[in-house]
């Protein structure tokens, strides 16, 4: 197995190890009568499903009361699946506590920042820090591991589910207690915490750990470092809970890999998945396409793959068609499901799974699409599901191959995300992730591959490093960036970067403090723009949101673009400091994906980063590359809703849809080429 | 009396029974010094007022503390009114608990879904399920009945006031207890409830009734069936409270009819008045004109009249001019008050009353208009009030006549209203009542009379039945609709109809499950549209909100209209399945009142429903018909702000305003014609 | 000293009394290491700083626990400042309770109207009425006074800080108790309160004081008089707290003047500063420029100066550049800081101070500008700060001079502000302060000086009195206005004026009740307009928001303007009743600053009020005048962003910037001329 995948991957049951991509869904047989189960496994085989996630919301069914257990039905399901060659990613079933538990122990319910309890009735109504919840949950984990640890269908453990989706921020007294423990570990002494939190202002100096609270609803803006630390703590509290479940599983079933489904997507901001990635045997992710945001899907898949260190990862959930939680939930267009799935594979997923197998008739997610829709197997959706199964089978050789690094990378940093969007800032309009996504789209439009990496990633792998709004720059990060440029790297950063250290303290002496020398410039005051205001640059593009008044302080700084309108007309808008073989560039306004185009062209030229696809398809076709022992695999993804002819790209066509029309990609189509080394 | 009205109506005091319409207002003499009372009764006589609603908010005055009663002032008022020939619709005075009661028993205060208490200071701060409140309130009801049950002025009992206006949803522990009782009655066993609520998903299976809670603030979407049942329960809880008051009254004063003022209007959604209508001796309603929504007034009056089963009903409150609770509160235009009043009469009201007699100088409603405004009796408003009194006297022959049924009906269904607008649906933009109102406006624009009926109404009375967004279709309703079409009826329904059963479980196999066969079509995925998106039909109209991809599955389906834009271009948009003499039609998008015009024309043709007014005034003049022993009464209502000449309509002109100008209706004017059988 | 200033002003320490303007900032040395303090005082001297506000948020540092005190560091700071000739406005340090206090006494935390506690973590988390808080706070005040009462640097006491900024409305049980005490003092008996609150409606009659609560979250609109009285009480509760601190200080240090910083600015509405002004030895104010609202700054400065009775006042806080609490926080434009500062001086400020001296590196206000920005003293901001110091030194002769009254005044009335914007009114769109500001801008555009005065001000000083939306008119105020007009004064008022008495009871008989006779007109119904609706007047201007239907009832009423569109076409829009030498005018719609122009021209003509500046600069240059023993001081403020040539104005140029260019004012520039009597 190790030869095919990284150190830990699914334990495929009872058959010779062979390359294959996993394919399946969350399976919730509890919702259906026994006779439907038989239909299910037959339809799964028809679709090529080889794995399902099971028991995610089964706690109430498995343990109907504190002292009663009912595993019989699950035994049957496990056996039935195994009999049909379908592996199981088995949940620990702790995702949502059953009514008897919250009735007996309302003290496990989360509490909002304004003191309002989150009651049962939906799901995930538990405090990450509740000792009572943990005791009951780990008892269940142990029971699951003991009963199913040696079941032949068991391929992996699925810890809880979407940890933090609804309960990441809990302000209860349990949270307060755990926050204090976390802070004590971080700061050692109350004095050190007082320094870090700058409590000398607003009379906030603490005399004792016991006085410290989560940033609950306050009369004015809560202390920003308290807010930032509470975000860090909240992410860590869930990580520690994940670790607690994992430790039980590792103790009892050391051979079974453990994962949990992250949510690297959209505005899911509370969990630092770059940090969590070290806690699982392999990375899993859930991703749902936001209306019209195809590039966001690619961005999330790309980042997920890099958090997995280039190793294969598991797409645990996405949707065959519409979801049910957006204001308006559109069905996917023809080909959309396949393009979404293969885009994840292109960026390293070796598993393509959905929520869920069979669309519910009742309950909160009954309007969420599934592999078997309400209409049944006689439906377009199910026919597409069957087609996708065949496609994934055809792509089996790709299983176990790794992502091939790009020449360029975008740095994505949770601390900067959290800190740059805190309250009482120069502008409340700044959106960290959107700026990163804008750059990603600009790369895609330029036809240039780019990786999205965490800020702890190895910068030296890349010729060009774009770190948008790198707001939090501790000294060590500043040193790493300086070393990167010193080593010949080409760094690009933007407005509101380099402003604060790890405690959200401003680096003094002029902005962008931590990066002032590296960039060779100095800014005295922040330059947020009013809604609707726009500044123009001599590159023919225009900016919104921000516009810095830049003083160049280093003779090696070259003005890439200047303002032609606004308060800073005639002054630099974009600069590059040449530093030996490397460079450090600064973009002082929000240009958006289109406006970034000409800027990126300059940066690519400076850094020597080149497109790998023919210029004719740049922007229309996105390229992602996986690499195996003897070949690369090129994924050519049609980003558009038009057909695109691709000339001058050669390789063995692996994926059927392309065969019919040669290298013309229909709307939303994906072609996979095998290119031997 | 029974000859003039239905089985129960006002007990007009101490004079020979004669036909007359009731006219009056809420009367709150407590707000004014004794000397004003004398002015009041004289001005009432001047205006032709013959009834007032009394003591609605008098609890604190009648029972100043738990053990002290003060009826003296009310005795005086009752006697004074009676002396001037003014009857009394006497409130049980329980609408708003006095300060001493909430101070002693804060446990009667309602609690919001997020645990926030609704404190005293306004009105209606009581839990519908509170045993403590009920005990105190029924004690008061009993005291009122004992003291005034034989007072000659007493014409009817007015239970409480606008039940549920502010307190329909209470999530307190009292509510939880009562909810469990209600659920136990509905489901019998916890297992059955678990099935109905689909609790196998999200680990929600209950082991005991005691674990069940109202759908309080939760971490995610609460169980939808729990939500729907809580809406049903909340409506029932108030209905049961109404019943409790009524039982006291019926026991003590069996000859006095009992009513309570419903609020069939606008977005007042929490109370299923179709269900409540059986609980009163005659139906009463409050209605306030929403800015610019004249058709909404007609729709509400129409529906109220049908809930009253065609019998006369009581317009308990509307306004002479501006209200005080809209964002901007405009005075009514000249003639507006009379048109509003007579529109209610046209649809069956035998009483025209206002909130309130004399405009308050202080308190929360002081900027709400009244019969006697702040300006006093020397005012346009009071002069109009006097005129209206004369008009109603002229219309006395209409008293006791019944609504004449239309050929067509629109079905209005509270379950579908509640369920179709729940969260996590295909679109959050759907508005059930607006779609029904759009159809109503389309009928009005076509000059065709239509009834608005509850879903329990007798379908067979109608040639054409429009059931917009009939979302909840239990098997029995599906059967009734099938029988209706089988019997030659013409049914029309729309997008998102027939989707779920009474438990909000989706009917499987393709949409619209419950009506798939009847309509002869099948839809695999829902078709919500983005905000701003619009699809065009070959009928020359366009739709928003929704657009289904329809597969026709029955050879007898005729395509009425097809899409010419959007994802479903070339496919059916509107279909009619011919079934013997009947038909079943489907409209798959939201067309709005104008877009429905040509569609309705087709449907009228198919169903043989014809306008009764000359084509020249269709749309400008709305017709409503009441029918008595020897004549029909036609109400011709000018829907526009222009003058309209009405030719070719004959009859004896009953209402004065028309006389002056023959059959030309000035802006907003109403003409009443008597047409002998 | 008394010769230079009014009866109480700063006690300048240890040097011969001389005229000078105070200049400085809040100084928070606790945020910085000891070595920075030395830099601070040197830079202060460089900038001409002569006073700082100290210890505002030092409670936690001064009293680290209930029984531990640490004054040593503050002793050092006081001594260091004094050694450098810098006086101290010493805070009582009670602004924000330390963590140990709220941990031990959570019962001091404020509670919102919906029962949600405001927790520590920010600042000002204390109930104004908490006896526990008061006990601890006054203990601190006493300690401060005892320790520093005779320190030579001490120039004034600064009570707490921005009282009520976040905690003015507290609905806790402490607040309930204090509210009852306040009500008992106001009304004497429960019966009288019931009358005033009109509790006979909605069954709200109280039987006992103990039943009364603050207007907490209710099921519907809380009683409006209860709401209004709660606003009055809440302002008074803070005033009483201010008084409690002041009494300790006056007892211990009778020679040291006491002040506290008001917040006469923008929408800060909760504190009736006209009432508070009597509680301090001299008035202080904080003001922050709202984006684009220069006239609002002038308006606030103008009003503040009148609340100070024309005596000099202390600008305690404003900003050198950007703030951090608006949605987007722009840096000030060049010259902006100086213009803002001198505008305050023009209207009577003898002190120009900032929040804060050195911009914080951490904490909630780190993005708020300061005298020493993050960039350090090598910055444009600091250079401007130094320039301003020199300017203020040049303006020293102005110190101690008083405001010279204008011929016209705008009346600003807190009761009307509070009452006119309550809920359930004719329109929710009305903005009291904006209407007043519109008039102020119209005066500025006309080049005419105007004072902004409280409603208790002496009307007889003015030839023209504009009282926009004077909604609350008790009999005594009506009498004063009648006497004013009778004495030859020219009164102007607007829509929704004269409507209610002090209990928010409507004056009956037609609007505007209390002023009906005086204005010679009568209105029967309110005339709010829909959003977007606009009515035109024959003066060539147009109105929004409101349009009354006016009946003229007095033969001496002259129609100034009539409506040419809308429901009242052809009827009066603006009227003037001539009454002997005086007049009373009514403006029945919202005209906005531009639309008021021609109206104001008429009113100026009627009242004989004339501009003092040449017509050529009217609108571009704002004039404010201070007057001393032997000369007037004219402040010519360029309101625009263009240069303006000022001809025909003579005087000795006091302020340097003008000298360079004669009497041409650059954008945003201010010139000060000395004009001997």
From TrEMBL, chains A, B, C:
Enzyme class, one word?
hydrolase
Provide the organism lineage as a comma list: Bacteria, Bacillati, Actinomycetota, Actinomycetes, Streptosporangiales
Q: How is this protein named in the record?
A: Beta-galactosidase
The keyword Hydrolase is annotated on this UniProt entry: yes
What's one GO BP annotation on this UniProt entry?
Answer: galactose metabolic process
Question: Which controlled-vocabulary keywords does the entry list?
Answer: Glycosidase, Hydrolase
Q: State the reactions this protein catalyses.
A: Hydrolysis of terminal non-reducing beta-D-galactose residues in beta-D-galactosides
Domain Beta-galactosidase C-terminal, chain residue ranges per copy? 621-675
């Amino acid at each position: 197995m190790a030869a095919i995948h990284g150190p830990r991957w699914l334990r495929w049951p009872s058959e010779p190890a062979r390359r294959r991509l996993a394919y399946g869904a969350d399976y919730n047989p509890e919702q259906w009568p026994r006779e439907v189960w038989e239909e299910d496994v037959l339809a799964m085989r028809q679709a090529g499903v080889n794995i399902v996630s099971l028991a995610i919301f089964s706690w109430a069914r498995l343990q109907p009361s504190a002292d009663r257990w009912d595993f019989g039905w699950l035994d049957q399901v496990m056996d039935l699946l195994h009999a049909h060659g379908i592996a199981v990613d088995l949940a620990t079933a702790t995702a949502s506590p059953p009514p008897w538990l919250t009735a007996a122990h309302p003290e496990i319910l989360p509490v909002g920042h304004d003191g309002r309890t989150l009651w049962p009735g939906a799901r995930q109504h538990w405090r990450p820090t509740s000792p009572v919840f943990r005791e009951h949950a780990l008892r269940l984990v142990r029971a699951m591991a003991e009963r199913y640890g040696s079941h032949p269908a068991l391929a992996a453990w699925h810890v809880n589910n979407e940890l933090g989706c609804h309960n990441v921020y809990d302000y209860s007294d349990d949270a307060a207690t755990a926050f204090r423990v976390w802070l004590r570990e971080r700061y050692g002494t109350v004095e050190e915490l007082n320094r870090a939190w700058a409590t000398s202002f607003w009379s906030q100096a603490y005399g004792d750990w016991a006085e410290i609270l989560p940033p609950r609803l306050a009369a004015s803006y809560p202390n920003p470092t308290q807010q930032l630390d509470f975000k860090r703590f909240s992410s860590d509290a869930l990580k520690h809970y994940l670790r607690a479940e994992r430790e039980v599983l590792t103790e009892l079933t050391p051979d079974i890999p453990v994962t949990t489904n992250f949510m690297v997507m959209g505005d899911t901001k509370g969990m630092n998945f770059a940090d969590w990635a070290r806690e699982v045997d392999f990375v899993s992710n859930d991703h749902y396409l936001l209306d019209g945001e195809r590039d966001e899907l690619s961005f999330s898949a790309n980042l997920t793959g890099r958090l997995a260190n280039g190793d294969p990862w598991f797409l645990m959930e996405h949707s065959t068609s519409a979801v049910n939680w957006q204001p308006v939930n559109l069905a996917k267009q023809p080909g959309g499901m396949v393009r979404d799935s293969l885009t994840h594979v292109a960026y390293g997923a070796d598993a393509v799974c959905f929520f869920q197998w069979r669309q519910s008739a009742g309950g909160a997610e009954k309007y969420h699409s599934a592999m078997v829709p309400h209409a049944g197997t006689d439906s377009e959706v199910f026919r597409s599901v069957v087609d996708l199964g065949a496609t994934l089978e055809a792509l089996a050789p790709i299983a176990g191959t790794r992502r091939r690094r790009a020449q360029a990378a975008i740095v994505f940093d949770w601390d900067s995300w959290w800190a740059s969007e805190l309250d009482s800032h120069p502008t409340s309009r700044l959106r960290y992730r959107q700026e990163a996504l804008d750059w990603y789209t600009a790369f895609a439009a330029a036809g240039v591959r780019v990786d999205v990496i965490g800020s702890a990633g190895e910068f030296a792998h890349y010729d060009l490093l774009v770190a948008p709004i790198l707001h939090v720059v501790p000294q060590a990060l500043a040193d790493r960036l300086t070393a990167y440029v010193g080593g010949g790297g080409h760094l690009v950063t933007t407005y509101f970067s380099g402003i604060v250290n790890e405690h959200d303290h401003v680096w003094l002496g002029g902005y962008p403090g931590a990066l002032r020398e590296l960039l060779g410039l100095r800014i005295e005051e922040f330059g947020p723009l009013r809604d609707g205001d726009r500044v123009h640059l001599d590159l023919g593009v225009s900016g919104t949101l921000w516009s810095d008044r830049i003083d160049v302080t280093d003779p090696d700084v070259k003005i890439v673009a200047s303002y032609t309108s606004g308060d800073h007309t005639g002054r630099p808008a974009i600069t590059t400091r040449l530093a030996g073989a490397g460079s450090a560039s600064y973009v002082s306004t929000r240009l958006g994906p289109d406006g970034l185009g000409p800027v990126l062209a300059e940066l690519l030229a400076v850094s020597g980063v080149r497109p790998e696809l023919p210029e004719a398809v740049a922007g229309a076709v996105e390229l992602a590359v996986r690499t195996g022992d003897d070949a690369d695999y090129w994924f050519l993804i049609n980003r558009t809703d038009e057909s695109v002819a691709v000339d001058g790209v050669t390789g063995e066509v692996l994926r059927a849809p392309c065969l019919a029309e040669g290298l013309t990609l229909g709307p939303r189509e994906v072609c996979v080429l095998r290119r031997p080394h």
